[in-house]
Design a protein that fits this description.
The chain is an alpha+beta fold. The chain is 27% helix and 29% strand. The chain contains 17 helices and 33 strands. Strand 11, helix 1 and strand 12 form a beta-alpha-beta unit.
Length: 670
């Protein structure tokens, strides 16, 4: 576990004075420097240092250096920021170690002209009267400079960003609260803000009375990340709790924006019913919902409507069980409306922050806040620089204690991770099973899939751990499905009913060649908020297109072989495009040869079975939870019609899909 408090090691030559209502004064001639610690899932992964010096022109020059080491991958970046009067930026450049020559981020402002260069394009424009430079990621020192500019210019409601695309929305920065924290040097007062449109969702950040950024947290747009100025390390735990509380307030605001169109008792009439059981579709159906449950389902001719019941007309559409997203990293309250908009009514989180996840789960369950039903898999890894997350288990006893903490908090599963030792994995699995929960996750590096299953794993995240175990030791592939080793593993997984979520769509997104536009295989990017679309379009690398397609086809053959053998498969998108990532996963399963109904079941009844909840969810049957989705078209004929959601029913509350999406920036039309 991460310690609760740390020593102060701040080296700050000069702080900014603050006068009036948060208006920052100019830095004193001595300059300024500081250091931020960087965390992912509350696990420290690196640091960022900055140094600001006065410039001859009257402004300043700030240099920033960041080094992150995340699960064995080290990334180093430097930024140079030049500013003039009023903290106005005149130049920003990022340099990343190992980046290709065309992966440049640079903004230059000269003679009232702005030139912006990004990996996705280049643009020249007239300098607007008010705007800040755009930048990748969330470097704390750049956000501090951004906040100083915003404060100095009267806290505008919208702050345009200078990006290579004119589609970038302006930042929305809000002053949302104040709080005091206790440091070894005494109490300190902080002002809390939220920032929207820098990443997907709202960040939370704190400025201190000296105009320094004390800490910043992002819960959205990928895995959660935090940065804290060294002076405020002792208050880090307090700020994490405060940030979660702010997220819940942001969720309240989303709830006020989108209200259900029907609750209590209503009937959906005229749709093609695909109930998820594998039974033939019912072309003209009636499904009646009352108090969150399905009370009738069948053909219109044989399913009478109660007198006076509210009717939702759905002729020409298909009605299905709500989808299950079986590999989410639910990292912000904006995930809720985005997933619901895509028809996802149940989501399994596969490793997030304990405090945030339990808070948002409770708010969804008890207050019907916007979001799918959340199932939680508690993350456990070994510590050290290769570890992932804040819960470490170096010994069997520590593993048992971690399982008990998660089980006591109502988690549905344990997610094991790569650095665990075999004896710790065995102890975790035994305790999880004793507590009545299952074990999923990465196969630890010390064993392969055979060993992971022997040590008690019930499920495996990511197809790569299956394909690796099918290969002879030392081989890099391709997989020979006719080999004794591959057949042995498939037989073992079938006998033990080991559940696999392949996350094939995320492999496609993260590993595609730069020469292939991500929108060509993930059309949902065209409807996604700019900050998400640009993030995913920037992924990919110098991969040969032919080899990429061979890899995807080979993975498809493994998925088909698992399905043919009766190995349970469930659909999950990992950190792919929120909502649409599940659709892409199912499209890939159909491309691999699964019948459309079988692909649909990986995200409905099959997923419910994997989580031992099929008695009350996963299909459209009388007595089950009213978790439903309406789509234009027929996904049995064209699986991509699942992307065309019109309405979603979550626990008996019917919402408009487009309204849900718009609340968090999605622009889809049906």
């Amino acid at each position: 576990m991460r310690p609760a408090a740390f020593a102060i090691v701040l080296s700050l030559t000069t702080a900014l004075a603050v006068s009036g209502r948060g208006q920052p004064a100019a830095p004193t001639p001595g300059g300024e420097q500081g250091r931020y610690a960087t965390f992912s899932l509350l696990h420290e992964i690196g640091s960022e240092t900055y140094s600001a010096s006065p410039a001859a022109s009257g402004g300043s020059v700030t240099t920033i250096a960041a080094t992150l080491s995340d699960r064995g991958s080290t990334r180093a970046s430097t930024w140079t920021l030049k500013t003039g009067g009023g903290f106005a930026p005149t130049f920003l450049e990022e340099k990343r170690a190992g980046a290709a020559a065309d992966e440049v981020w640079r903004t230059q402002i000269a003679a009232d002209t702005v030139t912006v260069e990004e990996p996705g394009g280049r643009r020249t424009l007239a300098q607007p009267p008010l705007a800040y430079v755009g930048f990748p990621g969330m470097p704390a020192a750049l956000q501090m400079a951004m906040m100083r500019y915003w404060l100095a210019h009267g806290e505008p409601a919208a702050l345009p960003l200078l990006r290579a695309s004119d589609q970038a929305p302006p930042l929305e920065i809000r002053r949302v609260g104040a709080e005091s924290v206790t440091l070894p040097t005494g109490p300190a007062k902080l002002t809390r803000y939220t920032v929207a449109n820098l990443l997907f969702g709202r960040e939370v950040l704190w400025m201190d009375a000296q105009g320094r950024l004390a800490a910043v947290m992002t819960f959205a747009g990928g895995l959660p990340q935090e940065q804290v100025l060294e002076a405020y390390r002792p208050a880090f735990d307090h700020l994490v709790v405060s940030g979660v509380r702010q997220e819940m307030a942001d969720l309240d605001e989303l709830d006020r924006q989108v209200r259900p169109e029907a609750t209590g008792a209503f009937a959906i009439v005229g749709a093609r019913l695909i109930d998820g059981t594998g039974a033939p579709a019912v072309p003209d159906s009636v499904v009646i919902v009352r108090d969150g449950r399905i009370v009738a389902a069948g053909a219109r001719a044989t399913t009478p409507l109660p007198s006076g019941i509210k009717v939702i007309h759905a002729e020409g559409q298909s009605l299905l069980p709500g989808l299950w997203e079986m590999h989410s990293h639910y990292s912000g309250v904006e995930f809720g409306p985005a997933l619901l908009a895509a028809g996802v009514t149940t989501a399994r989180d596969c490793g997030g922050e304990f405090g945030f996840l339990t808070a948002v789960r409770a708010k969804i369950e008890r207050e019907h806040a916007l979001g799918p039903r959340l199932l939680l898999a508690g993350l456990i890894d070994a510590g050290g620089p290769l570890g992932f997350g804040a819960v470490d288990a170096e010994t069997p006893a520590q593993g048992v204690a971690a399982v008990d903490r998660y089980a006591d908090a109502g988690f549905n599963q344990i997610k094991v991770y790569t650095q665990l030792k075999p004896d710790v994995l065995t102890a975790i699995s035994a305790e999880a099973h004793r507590r009545g929960i299952t074990v999923t996750g990465h196969v630890p590096a010390a064993v392969d899939a055979f060993g992971g299953i022997a040590d008690g794993m019930d499920q495996i995240n990511h197809l790569q751990f299956v394909t690796r175990a099918m290969l002879p030791e030392g081989s890099n592939g391709p997989v020979d499905l006719s080999s004794d080793r591959a057949k042995h593993l498939i037989t073992l997984m079938k006998e033990r009913q080991i559940v696999v979520d392949p996350t094939e769509g995320w492999g496609e997104m993260a590993g595609h060649p730069k020469s292939v536009s991500a929108a060509s295989f993930e059309p949902g990017l065209r409807a996604a908020p700019f900050v998400l679309a640009s993030k995913f379009e920037a992924l990919g690398g110098p991969v040969d297109e032919g080899r990429f397609r061979e890899r995807m086809a080979a993975n498809g053959r493994v998925i088909k072989a698992l399905y043919d053998a009766g190995v349970p498969i469930v659909a999950g998108s990992d950190t792919g495009l929120i909502g649409y990532g599940v659709d892409r996963e199912l499209e890939l399963y159909v491309q691999a040869g699964l019948p459309p109904i079988a692909a649909i079941q990986t995200a409905t009844l099959g997923a419910a079975r994997a989580m031992k909840l099929d008695h009350e969810s996963g299909s459209v049957e009388v007595g089950k939870r009213a978790d439903l989705m309406l789509v234009n078209g027929d996904p049995l004929a064209n699986i991509s019609d699942l992307r065309r959601v019109t309405k979603v029913v979550r626990a008996g509350e019917l919402y408009d899909s487009l309204a849900l999406g718009r609340s968090v920036g999605f622009r889809r039309t049906n």
